[in-house]
Design goal:
Alkaline Phosphatase, subunit A; ten-stranded mixed sheet; four-stranded antiparallel sheet
Amino acid sequence: MKHFTSFLVSLCLFAGHAITAEPEKPNIVFILADDLGRTDVGFMGCKEIRTPQLDKLAAAGAVLDAHYVQPVCSPTRAALMTGRYATHTGVYTIVRPHAPWGLPLEERTLAQALRAAGYETAITGKWHLGEFEEAYRPTRRGFDHQYGFWFGMIDYFKHTRDTTLDWHRNDQPCNDEGYSTHLIAKEACRRVREKQPDKPLFLYLPFNAVHGPFQVPDSYLAPYDKLTGTRRTYAGMVLAMDEAVGQVVAALEEKKLKENTLIVFSSDNGGPSPGRITTNGPLRAGKGTIYEGGIRVCAFASWPGRIPAGTIKEPIHAVDWYPTLVKLAGGKLEQKLPLDGLDIWPVLTQGTKSPHDALLLCGGRPEQAAIRMGDWKLLSNASEVDAEKSEGKTAGKRARGKAARVTHGVELYNLADDIGEKKNLADAQPEKVKELRAKLDALLKNAVPSGVVQAATATAKPKRRQQK
């Protein structure tokens, strides 16, 4: 009996050790809003628009005060999916419908890396990284399940871009009816409820909310009768998205998955038309620019018990999520193409400093870029443009008329003293300009051309041969 008791004790200790050595892999839900203003959510101080579901998650986690992305949609998605800057993927600008390019096929995606680590992978919402050939579509880039749309700027009720239907399930046309935010939420909840029991879930949830066209069911306008025009519609769209997030969280709770789920939320870029439709607080400019208002967005990471509640002011970038999540999932980071992102898990959980000595902040072309080192930020060839007016136009047309760019030279700001980037210190701080310029040039040294340029070059070559 004595020996049997000792055996049971040893067995229990062994089992306990095994559990400690092999922790359960977390589910990962990454929520990406589209064109959301930095200060249009409660957890960033907004009093005008209600976001109770987002606020609850943010309060239980870490608000990321210096979370950087790209100035527009596709480049942020490419950075998130690859852990690599636009200077290495070539995705500097929006991948427009039917464009003969997309996220290069040699890029390994976050979905592929997590699937290799044993995850079930799903995208519910907006892809926007190429669809002109099957190989560029979500189900060929690592996602087990796809639901939603390939393009951007679709009609929320008709699910069309211009006259083309853009609604798909597993990359096949789908005619589901309803408001897109509602459909995306419904599918996300289904993916949670039908999760494979033997695999953790990676759910990528990129809403088209709150991108134009500005459309929302009338019921969401009721709380905002004091607002007028597009701002009121936009507020209703934010409310609908917030409600959708709450539904997904409820599904996680229903399936008893929430305690082991990391939820990350971010906007894909700053709000367009700041001061008229969106608000970016004291930050300068908005979507389409490399000023803070275009690339420093509202974001949080929430996992109670793992990520302490509070605010993190250390600068991090969308490229950092790839290595952070893959490492957290027990996946492998060894790959052919080198990563720009760094593991920020210690920043989130232990309050350490950012692992970056500098962040590269890319614009719409290689020569338009900024760098942040500590509190200092240097910009080269920055421009201010109304991204809302230029969104649906070609690159050539976008540079003319009312949406014409006003391009500046070299600018230097100290963000600790001047978060609104109002006082250019370039002339007063020549040595600091020289220091940051050297670092920026080094980061841009091997920048690849834009995918738009590469595609145009590839299609032009046969034409030249025919002319001969």
